[in-house]
Amino acid sequence: MDLSTQPVRAVPKSVQLHKNDVPREKRIKHNRGSLTRRQRSEASPKVRKEVHERSGGVCEKCDRARSAQLAHIERRWKSEGKPTAEDFADLCVDCHTWCDSCDEGRQWLLDFQDKLIELREEKAQ
Question: Against a cut of 0.85, is the pTM above it?
Fold first, then answer.
């Protein structure tokens, strides 16, 4: 059958299926109401400012380079609640790459987080 010779027939709106014509159990379910893991673990502007003030704009690992990135101390996929300033380190690109690429770097981040928690507890007393 040669379709090129057949006339094009638009389906009238009265015949098209509408959302209400599809039974509820067959409708596509979307999760648009909930935030993604990435959105939940993003640093708020307040937290970014707090981390930047803590570091003075200098990498918290090497103390030489200008900090350019916030590094998650705890992996994003492990984060539960809203992140605080203690969940981030202000690092230069090289140090951030080092921390994410090797066990030694990961351990440095965890030790750094312990140091931040100790400082917070000292301030509270």
Answer: no
